[in-house]
Structures
1.
Amino acid sequence: AEMESELRRAIADEQLVLYYQAQTYLGKITGAEVLLRWIHPEKGLVPPGKFIPLAEQCGLIIPLGNWVLETACRQLAAWADHPELSKVTLSVNVSAHQFSMIDFVANVERVLRETGAEGKLLKFELTESAVLIDVDSTADKMMQLKDLGINFSIDDFGTGYSSLFHLKHLPVDQLKIDRSFVRDINEDPDDLAIVQAIIAMAHNLGISVIAEGVETEAQKRCLEKRQCRHFQGFLFSQPLPLDQFENCDIDIF
Ligand code: G
Ligand code: G
Ligand code: MN
Ligand code: NA
């Protein structure tokens, strides 16, 4: 309960910041996943694992999620005239609760309008469970958001109870291979088998696939050999504060 009121204050008092973690294609940056950080006045940097679950429980995830979306969109708009950063996409994690709100689409539309951000530079990362809560209304919402140019990636793919049948009927653009499968890809043949199956399925469905949690050259080589070309992980970049992301030394695609 104490943390809840602190978190409430954090939103009001601008103690939240976004970090940006590069997503790459063929060695260049195509975009970044935005990751929420809480700079607590006494505790310092609080990782999202410590407060996102709480925010989900008490409903604060809605104002929190709105803040993330607005901040990401303001950033896209700020980059619009930049020679290179204007092409960078931002991936926003959308929680199941947030996505299930009846006014979610209207809210996104409003944020795009108010910030002037281009929808096609925005990607929503949804989890399998978020997508499957109510498949009919999910499909409906996704279509409306796609009309705004927004793309969709299924986060932590393979760890939820996804129905491949349902996936087929949803306008998904990308599968994001969970880092738990990437970690031991060179040691555990079962992980490799799962990763290969996800890559093959994505390509057969005509959608892209990104591996997260790539930390070593050996993991990257193994994934490349299996035709995975989109990466995210510490090998390329840590999640960085804005100024460091803007000045990081990887070329932009
Ligand atoms: O950045 P880090 O690895 O500490 O994130 C831990 C978890 O918190 C991840 O599962 C990530 O998806 C989640 N997370 C980070 N930022 C956000 C956010 O803005 N919204 C939501 N819903 N989850 C986030
Ligand atoms: O669940 P989600 O994909 O949103 O989680 C993103 C989280 O993964 C972030 O908190 C980020 O800090 C973490 N992360 C990003 N790259 C790596 C990596 O290469 N290795 C590990 N262990 N974690 C990573
Ligand atoms: Mn994510
Ligand atoms: Na993930």
2.
Amino acid sequence: GLVNSRELFKKAMEGGYAIPAFNFNNMEQLQAIISACVETKSPVILQVSSGARKYANQTLLRYMAQGAVEFAKELGYPIPIVLHLDHGDSFELCKSCIEFGFSSVMIDGSHLPYDENVALTKKVVDYAHQFDVTVEGELGVLAGIEDDVKAEHHTYTDPAQVVDFVSRTGVDSLAISIGTSHGAYKFKPEQCTIDENGRLVPPPLRFDILKEVEKRIPGFPIVLHGASSVPQEYVDEINRYGGKLKDSIGVPEEQLREAAKSAVCKINIDSDGRLAMTAAVRRVLWTQPAEFDPRKYLGPARDELKKLYMHKTQNVLGSAGKA
Ligand code: G3H
Ligand code: 13P
Ligand code: NA
Ligand code: ZN
């Protein structure tokens, strides 16, 4: 069956790698995630946002995730699979997901005043732990759009708050803000420098803050949201086949590789998958305009996604071979 994240984070911490948390909304994404993680023998966290829950229906999602466990076995290797609520915004939503068989939830009170964040998070933890469901909390606010909440600037996590937060709430992991953000536009070109190949290089993440956090809560699992790298190849392909993405910039993979070696035990990736799928769908529809069987474009999209996810577990997060 599905597992919670406790054991996975413990091993990731000891082994110096991070578990991938990939968002899914449909069957092709789920198939790509599972087949990539089985093939590379990586544990995986399947993430469902509240938007995904609305899009796909929670009953279907529940059975899809349970089906994924069977699918992995059928593919020949039973990897640990977590079903996690991404950015839960209320106690009721978390409770409902727990009733629906999720093995892990995030309660995101990061935009609330500190004491309200503590109270809400603790309420979810007290409920979830009765069912052995693990809980992720968040301190600090990422710039950009986080579901319905939009922030102009980063509010970096204050390391002085982390001991109090984790001890008062009892959370199992903590998402922090060190300069990542959601979506495909993480940095403005004017913030970047240009390397010898003419590519934009964004300012580095605040590893100094991460180190401060690690010092105060040693061995405690840290989560990195907004960790897509926005591969330029996908952006170029999308634009070549009629798309209009401009100035899309992500977190360089080298920095994620470094983060994965630290107390960061979970790395969230959604946008890169969206780009991979869109690039493949555009390529087929543009080059084979007479095609109208969805399998003819969703199939290649699924293949491209699988390639991307295998690359993440093998070359970025280091979770390959750990299942
Ligand atoms: O945190 C954002 C995730 O990428 C999920 O996005 O709310 O559009 O499903 P979504
Ligand atoms: P990206 O938009 O960088 O993929 O981040 C995804 C995320 O943090 C989901 O919670
Ligand atoms: Na790690
Ligand atoms: Zn997120």
